[in-house]
């Protein structure tokens, strides 16, 4: 995608009125590929990889906005935060960039980045109303009997309709009422897992009393902390599980291991064939144990596939890329898992499939607990 805009890059964070007055503005055709942004220079290009971008649509003070509009000549702007490797060791320096242009072009850029970047985008939200937060929390559970619980939010259908329209407009749910990545992130940031659990328990007391409770991942479990070091470069940020394949290619994995300094907070360490070092952390230890299975090519493919589905990586495109497995062979494996009654027709885990994964991950956890205890003895 090529867009003609004005831009100022390598700006110190946070952007203030002091440094806004010394922006070095450039104007030209900027290229947005699937993985990078290319800015033209007098002799070549300046490239900023997507995996260094931390936030899209950063809020800045009104005084800075006025300065940007005065200097750029445009009435619309888009601010991005990103990390840039330092000349000193393997550290990095935080920078911002300001893009200025017409509203249509900037919205195209925002959409493109939101679709492509696994790191956090659009991290600034205004607070939702109580009924909007409750509806978002309800939709995040993906319960099949949603209509039974809507009256617990509001008896007024107009209120519910307005709440849904607000969630759609903010990109927190899609047209089919499925919660988006941004919706999950909103719940994580504004309520926290404990609050979200409390709210869901209040909404679904009746369901938990009449049905077996099935353990599911919370919204924050769909995100991991990702760090990659290579020679003098260093990138770090939050990545959605389904986006990890953008940064980890299975054939490139040379060594994979679990670091268990604390049995409740293990991390996954990967050494690539190009000598890059990758570390992944999550507040849910089961996520780490599951990822160790997924990115280990020596594991049984059906175990890896079941584990993908357990983590919510369910789109064929994402599964095939995550496992680095031929798409035409993927359907054969899915059909076999369905025949074994380990998954349903919609690729959700059956009770038997969930029990299988729990056993696999619990055994993994037990083995590492023993290793951890042994390490304390020496």
* Tally of alpha and pi helices: 13
- Strands, count: 12
* SSE order: EHEEEEHEEHHHHHHEEEEEHHHHH
Task: Report the end-to-end length measured between terminal Cα atoms.
Answer: 57 Å
- Helical residue percent? 25-40%
Mean pLDDT: 76
Bulk shape: globular
Rg from alpha-carbon coordinates: 23 Å
What percentage of amino acids are in beta strands? 15-25%
How many strands, what sense, and barrel or not for the largest sheet? 7 strands, antiparallel
Total domains, how many?
Answer: 3
Classification by helices and strands: alpha+beta
- Low-confidence parts, pLDDT < 50 over ≥5 residues? 86-91, 118-126, 192-216, 365-378
Biggest sheet, strands in spatial order? 4-3-2-1-7-6-5
Question: Please, could you describe this protein's structure?
Answer:
This protein has 378 residues and is α+β, with helices and mostly antiparallel strands. The protein has three domains: 2-116, Pleckstrin-homology domain (PH domain)/Phosphotyrosine-binding domain (PTB) (PH-domain like), CATH 2.30.29.30; 130-210; 219-377, no CATH class. 39% of the residues lie in helices and 23% in strands. The protein has 13 helices and twelve strands. Strand 2 (26-32) and strand 3 form a beta hairpin. Helix 4 packs across helix 5 (157-169). Residues 86-91, 118-126, 192-216 and 365-378 have low confidence and may be disordered.
């Amino acid at each position: 995608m090529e867009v003609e805009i004005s831009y100022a890059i390598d700006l110190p964070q946070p952007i203030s009125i002091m440094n806004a007055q010394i922006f070095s503005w450039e104007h030209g055709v900027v290229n947005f590929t699937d993985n990078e942004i290319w800015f033209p220079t007098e002799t070549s290009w300046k490239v900023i990889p997507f995996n260094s971008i931390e936030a899209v649509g950063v809020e800045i003070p009104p005084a800075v906005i006025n300065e940007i509009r005065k200097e750029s000549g445009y009435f619309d702007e888009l601010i991005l935060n990103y990390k840039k490797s330092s000349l000193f060791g393997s550290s990095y320096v935080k920078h911002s960039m300001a893009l200025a242009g017409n509203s249509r072009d900037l919205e195209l850029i925002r959409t493109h980045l939101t679709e492509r970047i696994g790191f956090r985008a659009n991290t600034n939200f205004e607070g939702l109303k109580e009924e909007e937060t409750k509806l978002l929390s309800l939709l995040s559970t993906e319960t099949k009997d949603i209509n039974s619980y809507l009256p617990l939010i509001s008896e007024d259908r107009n209120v519910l309709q307005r709440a849904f329209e607000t969630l759609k407009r903010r990109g927190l749910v899609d047209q089919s009422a499925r919660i988006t990545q941004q919706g999950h992130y909103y719940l994580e940031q504004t309520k926290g897992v404990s609050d979200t659990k409390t709210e869901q328990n209040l909404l679904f007391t009746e369901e938990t009393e009449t049905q077996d409770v099935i353990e599911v991942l919370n919204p924050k479990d769909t995100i991991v902390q990702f760090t990659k070091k290579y020679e003098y470069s260093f990138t770090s940020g939050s990545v959605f599980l389904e986006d990890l394949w953008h940064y980890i290619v299975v054939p490139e994995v040379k060594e994979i291991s679990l670091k268990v300094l604390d049995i409740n907070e293990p991390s996954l360490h990967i050494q690539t064939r190009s000598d890059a070092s990758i570390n992944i952390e999550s507040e849910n230890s089961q996520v780490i144990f599951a990822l160790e299975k997924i990115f280990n090519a020596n594991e049984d493919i059906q175990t890896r596939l079941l584990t993908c589905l357990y983590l919510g990586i369910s789109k064929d495109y994402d599964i095939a890329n995550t496992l680095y497995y031929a798409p035409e062979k993927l359907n054969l494996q899915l059909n076999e898992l369905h025949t074994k009654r380990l998954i349903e027709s919609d690729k959700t885990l059956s009770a038997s499939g969930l029990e299988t994964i729990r056993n696999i991950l619990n055994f993994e956890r037990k083995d590492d607990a023993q290793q951890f205890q042994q390490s304390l003895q020496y």
